[in-house]
Amino acid sequence: MNRLTWVDNLRGMSVLAVIFLHSTIAVNGNAGHLTGVTETVNHLLSPVRLGLMFFVSGLFVESGLKKGFNLFVKNKVKSILYPFIIWVAIYGGLKLLFSSVSNNPQSPTNIILSHLTGGGDITWFLHSLFIFFLIIPWVRKVPFYIVIPVSLAFSFLLPAIPTGSVFSGFDNDHINRSFYLFTFFYLGDMLVKHQVDIPAFIGKKSVLLPSLACFIVLSSLNLVLNRDVAWQLLAPLALCSIPLFIFVALYANLKLVHFVGMNSIVFYLSHYLAIQVFAKAVKFTSKNVFINDLKFIAAFACALLLPLAICWLRRRGMLNFLFTLKPAAQSVYAR
């Protein structure tokens, strides 16, 4: 599958939603006049925010496997496992360095094991994605009506990692969440495998209108039930909402969204560094709503400016080694 604008737009929308969430966390949820907006947006997008990124990744399984399994794995080692190791070293190293002043101090063993097993604050995405690519050649042979229910059952039934365990991390449900997100990845691959013309398919009213209805129901349940309902039970609605987001991605004409999508790995992995620095540096609290407005806007701006600076440097042949083992000629800028 060739790189398509709507694919980059969809990925950009997903990454920006993640950055928006982390910017809200950086100001402890107090975004001034925007607090109601941030709470609503973050809550409504929670079932699909990361699912869209995994869905997009699944779209490229078929083209990768056509090159041969060995080359398929080799490419994933270069583009996923390698940056995972690099950024585990960066984030884990920073945790080790500043563990004495951390709000939630962890032992060196805990930091290392939690990151390497997918419990890292931001690197867990690459951990799960690499595993998905390794297992998909066999799982894709199983019918969807078995894969999706079984994945959601594991997601729902598996116990969380014990809080006191050396493997515990920022989210002890991350294995459960990975099984949930695998359904999005599998769906993306299934559509391409069956040669579905995705833009034409979702353009049908018989597909788009039910998708819109599913997202409205999903949103309503999210707002009414809050966290009293397991996300696995909402998975069918979340999966059926994907055509709606593809439709938006098809007709979105925002350069920032497209740019973020083209450089998604840079924005995803590096923005959290800016968020952490901002949260540590800007600790003052204020009752002035306008100051809180500015704090949130500043957090969001910082989370975008660092990746943008890295993209600028990468375009000039620097820092590419942080994100891939592939030579710069194969990077997005060469395309």
Note down, in words, how this protein is organized.
- It is a single chain.
- The protein has helices spanning 5-26, 35-45, 51-58, 61-65, 69-97, 108-116, 124-139, 144-157, 174-193, 198-202, 205-225, 235-240, 242-251, 255-262, 264-281, 289-315.
- It is mostly helical and 335 residues long.
- It has two domains: 1-46 and 237-335, no CATH class; 48-196, no CATH class.
- It is globular.
Which sheet architecture does the biggest sheet show? none
Order of helices and strands: HHHHHHHHHHHHHHHH
- End-to-end Cα distance: 14 Å
Number of helices: 16
Low-confidence stretches: 330-335
Percent helix, as a range, is 55-70%
GO biological process, one term: enterobacterial common antigen biosynthetic process
Keywords: Acyltransferase, Cell membrane, Membrane, Transferase, Transmembrane, Transmembrane helix
Subcellular location: Cell membrane
GO cellular component, one term: plasma membrane
Task: Give the structure's gist in a few sentences.
Belongs to the acyltransferase 3 family. The protein has 335 residues and is mainly α. Helices cover 68% and strands 0% of the residues.
Which terms would index this structure?
disordered C terminus; 68% helix; mainly alpha; 335 residues
